[in-house]
Write a structure and sequence with these properties.
143 residues, mainly alpha, extended
């Protein structure tokens, strides 16, 4: 019975999986899968973290090089930051005072934007020009 021998050559190792701690084998296999998944997630997180760190360092290097090359850009950068903070305060104060009105205004702006993008297509067919086939109407008439 060479087919029933286990990896150590013991004929009972494969025939009786309960022998010598075989009962915990499914648990250890499940734990092994969990450990493998945990290690894979850890590797993915480490890779994402290192990519984000590299991107940040590259961006910071570009900003430093730009400020070295164009020193007056630092003044514009400071002014732009000040304008952004003033603008965010000017917008956030009314939103905090009237949140329902702010939600209604955002909905109206979204509806207007959707109407501007999709509103002109009511009279046309729903197939865009690039998706139409040539001589489709002739093919439809002959069928």
């Amino acid at each position: 019975m060479p087919g029933n021998q286990g990896p150590t050559g013991n004929p009972q190792a494969r025939a009786n999986p309960q022998a010598k701690g075989g009962a915990s084998r499914p648990e250890s296999a499940g734990e092994g899968l969990v450990d493998q998944a945990r290690e894979t997630v850890r590797d993915a997180a480490d890779t994402a973290s290192s990519l984000a760190r590299d991107a940040y360092e590259t961006g910071a290097r570009y900003v430093r090089e730009g400020l070295d090359r164009y020193p007056e850009a630092g003044r514009y950068l400071d002014e732009g930051g000040r304008y952004i903070s003033e603008g965010s305060r000017a917008v956030s104060r009314p939103v905090e005072e009237n949140p329902l009105l702010a939600v209604l205004m955002a909905g109206a702006a979204g509806y207007l934007l959707a109407y501007l993008i999709h509103g002109g297509s009511r009279g046309r067919e729903s197939v865009p020009d690039y998706a139409r086939t040539r001589d489709y109407n002739e093919y439809r008439r002959s069928s």
